[in-house]
Write a structure and sequence with these properties.
Copper Amine Oxidase, Chain A, domain 1; 31% strand; 4 helices; single chain; alpha+beta; globular
Length: 183
Amino acid sequence: MKKVLLVLLVFALVFSVPAGVMAQDEVKVVLDGNPMEFEIAPQIENDRTLVPLRAIFEAVGADVEWDGETNTVTATKGDIVVILTIGDTNPTINGVVTPIDQPAIIVSDRTLAPMRFVAEAFGGNVDWDPDTYTAYITSPEATSDDNNVPEENAEEDANSEGDAATEGDDAVEEDANAETDEE
């Protein structure tokens, strides 16, 4: 009887701990050496790290538009046009489909999209540090490596999507965030 009570007590304790306490460290994003702050924190969905699209796209100099009727984000920088629709796994870059295996979602009126897609859409690179849960994004405009993750911590996945940002993984997911409010 004591063993049954002990098992029940352990079970109750494990499932009564808030999810945030049991979750891995919060995902951090550093763009060209500058830590980014988001209104909505990056999230892991189906083993993919989703980030606020608008914040990152605008930080790299893209213009971002939201079409609430079609739930579509259109971002433009120079001659590059990125189109991503909520719930769709086939966004385009200059009209060329760039498949993603986790579609963008809306959380609190913000678009979250796979991080690797967001980081690379305008020619950037992303490195993942699994020890600190930090994604280091380098924009094409970055002129030096002084602001990037130290080589001993940088691990880049050749896979276009990458695995979820979980302990021990060496990949980053595509992430994006766009405001869904019309501006």
